[in-house]
Write a structure and sequence with these properties.
The chain has about 525 residues and is mainly α. The longest helix has about 30 residues.
Length: about 525
């Protein structure tokens, strides 16, 4: 590739970054999912004259984008709740994917009889798994009960693996002309179990490394290396890179509270938040931009002729998820009374929302693009995949929030269910233990206090926290006024240190030190003011 082409692609990258900012702001003003706005922006870019030709490299997309996004999502997934709901997550991630693959394959052969059966099921496997990136991008801006979010995000973390495994089996069957159910089941098991074992191995190696890295920058680089190495290493060994990365992220998320210092954790969250935002935004805008190459293959006339087939595939993808979720929830409970008593029927709104939250995304597109040249029906599969991604994100992603509000689904107050302590009760208990630790160090044999001011400070904090936990609703307005005043004082201090710096009364080192102190105080006060 020429130097000029490389520069042109970098120019396009810079333009896309600038466009991301504009589209994000527009999406917030229009109250639409940013993912939808970014795809539409990418489609608009696809037909701007003079832009360099751009086609996604599927292998690069999967390796560059998927591992850090999977690790980030699994890192913040609560392991205890994930494990408790693992059976339901597997029903969605394996059962729904397999069922959708089957039904879409049948419908694909009906609308395109010339397409070989293996190619039909390859299309089904490509469009069957809802996408982890799309799910997170949409769900993080909606108010859903925590368990529903856990199920949807947990499903999206695992189902990419099952979808990609089924895709590989279908492609292999199409290329070789043979298929064995038993051999496919064994391959599926080996890929899955091997991926999980590899992820656990990479997680403990990363844990060992991070415990010895005290520099924040080195530790953060280590977490990014964990994402890519766990994916690339598992794929190189012939296992599922998706499951390896997810397993690695779950373990690191569980152990990070012991591994990272406060400073490393604070900087890591900031860096990862920035990187994930950029990667997610670029993925969606690149999906829209990829329409250019698809239209170039077909032409507009042929694309219009494919609309009836595309409509049939899209409707099948959506309905298949509804059928599987409703059947898996209601049929076992109807047939097995003990199960119904142990786990009653959920509110009708829950399966409706979970069925509608089936957005497809970058993994489906990358899988379609990775089909070998000359594969039977390759262009047809790519066109159907793009339409499924486009419709599910624009239609389902944009209307999911409206559906949630219409059905009256309310986000539950965190940490208040199943007898768990509320945040305020936990805070009071923590403050009591902190006071006991300070008293133990401060108390002298002669009865005096080595740190009387700390004993007074922690004693007041423990008393106030306990009092607030018992009368939270009554005292919340007073606490909010208190921390609003604290924030006003911090703002005044910030103005003053900037004035002193501008007047050359303090140097840069003093400015940064005082600013870090104010930043920490502001974060703490804002946390209390926002509340649980």
């Amino acid at each position: 590739m020429s130097h000029t082409t490389n520069v042109a692609h970098f120019d396009l990258f810079v333009i896309l970054l600038a466009t991301v900012v504009g589209l994000e702001l527009a999406a917030r003003r229009l109250k639409m999912p940013p993912a939808a706005a970014l795809i539409l922006g990418g489609i608009g870019f696809a037909f701007i004259p003079g832009l360099p030709d751009f086609e996604l490299d599927p292998d690069l997309v999967l390796v560059l984008f998927l591992p850090p996004l999977l690790l980030s999502s699994s890192y913040f997934t609560p392991w205890r709740e994930f494990r408790k709901n693992l059976w339901i997550i597997l029903q969605l991630a394996v059962g729904a994917v397999g069922f959708t693959t089957l039904i879409v394959g049948l419908v694909a052969h009906w609308v395109e009889p010339s397409l070989p059966w293996a190619a039909c099921f390859a299309l089904g496997a490509i469009v069957s798994p809802p996408d982890a990136v799309a799910a997170k991008a949409v769900l993080q801006r909606l108010s859903l009960p925590p368990r529903m979010v856990l199920l949807l995000e947990g499903e999206s973390l695992v189902n990419d693996a099952s979808g990609l495994v089924l895709f590989r089996l279908a492609v292999a069957a199409a290329l070789t002309g043979t298929f064995s159910v038993g051999q496919a089941a064994v391959s599926f098991g080996l890929l899955s179990v091997g991926g999980i074992v590899a992820g656990l191995f990479f997680a403990f190696v990363t844990d060992f490394m991070l415990r010895r890295l005290t520099d924040a920058h080195m530790a953060i680089i280590g977490t990014f290396l964990a994402a890519w190495i766990s994916y690339i290493g598992a794929e190189a060994a012939g296992f599922s890179g998706v499951l390896s990365t997810v397993a690695c992220g779950l373990v690191l998320g569980w152990r990070q509270h012991e591994v990272f210092s406060a400073n490393i954790r604070r900087e890591a969250v900031a860096v990862w938040g920035f990187v994930v935002f950029i990667l997610e935004s670029l993925i969606f805008i690149l999906i829209g931009l990829s329409l250019r190459s698809i239209v170039a293959r077909f032409g507009w006339h042929a694309m219009l002729e494919l609309l009836p087939a595309a409509a049939a595939i899209v409707v099948t993808v959506i309905i298949a998820r509804f059928v599987w979720i409703f059947a898996s929830i209601y049929i076992p409970r109807a047939l097995i009374p003990p199960l119904r008593r142990l786990s009653p029927y959920p509110p009708f709104a829950a399966p409706i929302i979970m069925s509608w939250a089936g957005m497809r995304g970058v993994v489906s597109l990358a899988a379609a693009l990775s089909l070998p040249v000359g594969f039977a029906g390759r262009d047809f599969i790519m066109a159907m995949t793009f339409v499924v991604i486009l419709v599910t994100i624009l239609l389902q992603g944009s209307t999911l929030g409206v559906l949630i509000r219409r059905l009256g689904v309310i986000k539950l107050k965190p940490n208040s269910a199943n007898g768990a302590l509320t945040i305020e009760q936990a805070r009071a208990q923590m403050a009591t233990v902190q006071l006991q630790a300070v008293k133990k160090i401060s108390s002298q044999k002669d009865g005096s206090e080595l740190h009387p001011r700390l004993v007074e400070q922690y004693g007041y904090r423990a008393k106030a926290s306990l009092h607030f936990s018992k009368a939270e609703d009554e005292l919340r307005p007073r606490r909010d006024e208190h921390f609003s005043t604290v924030l006003a004082a911090i703002a005044a201090g910030r103005v003053e240190i900037i004035r002193m710096h501008r007047a050359q009364e303090i140097d840069d080192a003093a400015l940064h030190a005082l600013e870090r102190q104010l930043d920490l105080e502001e974060m703490n006060a804002a946390e209390f003011l926002e509340g649980p």
